[in-house]
Amino acid sequence: MKKRSVIFLLPLIAGLLTGCDNKMEIMQFEKARQAALNADDPFQALDAFNRQAGEYGLNCDTFGNLLFGTSEKRLAACNTRDRAIREIVLRAIEKGSVPALVFLFEPHKKSPEVYPENLGSDEATKLAEKLVEMAEKSPADSKDTALLMRAGVVLQSGYYVHQDPRRAADLYVRAWLAGNKYAANKLAELYRFLKDFRRAYFWEIRSRNLKNDSRSYLSGQEISDIQRLVADDSRGNI
């Protein structure tokens, strides 16, 4: 009889201990969240948050969870962690973090999945204009190339702000001069879109990517002149 009593008590004790562990996990998680939100640049504090927040809401997309499903409690923890990370990114943007703003306008798959359209059209437009303004005022050294490139893409695409390929080109040139070699590809793409094949060919040579060769639109003399310009010009002008 005593043995049976002990057997029935074990799950209860385990449950109580798990409850205590869960409370401690939540306290640890909340402390890490607040520390990140209060940082000068919360975006730069994301790595520290992920280290300090412990296991709460972590590894929600593991094979086991996908195969057997996730408990309601576990799912709530996962959602809480996801919301906290989004909150940290948005707080960083509020505080003027350039890396966070650049990250927000990254259009491809990313983690955390925070995109301008999540914020509503008015807020997205306001932040896009801020991104462009910061890029155009930046000193354009090597640490600013990500900002210049992202603002250039926003202006080139016309998402969230008025489309302006010429302003985009200015930013790409500045990024290229600051050391971002991929900017030459964007300039070649932009000038092909504008059907300015002289400039497109100039930047195709700069990018060393001639798979979309613009020479077929140019005379032999134009091709020779542009090749000479590429060899002589160190400023990225044509």
Key descriptive features of the protein:
mainly alpha; 11 helices; 238 residues
Explained architecture:
- It is built from eleven helices and no strands.
- The radius of gyration is 26 Å and the shape is elongated.
- 66% of the residues lie in helices and 0% in strands.
- It has helices at 2-38, 46-52, 63-68, 72-94, 98-104, 121-137, 145-157, 165-177, 183-193, 197-207, 220-232.
- Residues 3-20 and 63-69 have low confidence and may be disordered.
- With 238 residues, the chain is mainly alpha-helical.
- Helix 1 packs antiparallel against helix 2 (46-52) and helix 9 (183-193) runs antiparallel to helix 10 (197-207).
- Overall shape: it is elongated
pLDDT averaged residue by residue: 86
How many DSSP helices?
Answer: 11
User: Could you tell me how far the N terminus lies from the C terminus, measured between alpha carbons in angstroms?
Assistant: 94 Å
The chain-level structural class is mainly alpha
Strand content: under 5%
State the share of residues found in helices, binned by percent: 55-70%
Report on the biggest sheet: none
How many runs of DSSP E, i.e. beta strands?
Answer: 0
Topology as a string of helices (H) and strands (E)? HHHHHHHHHHH
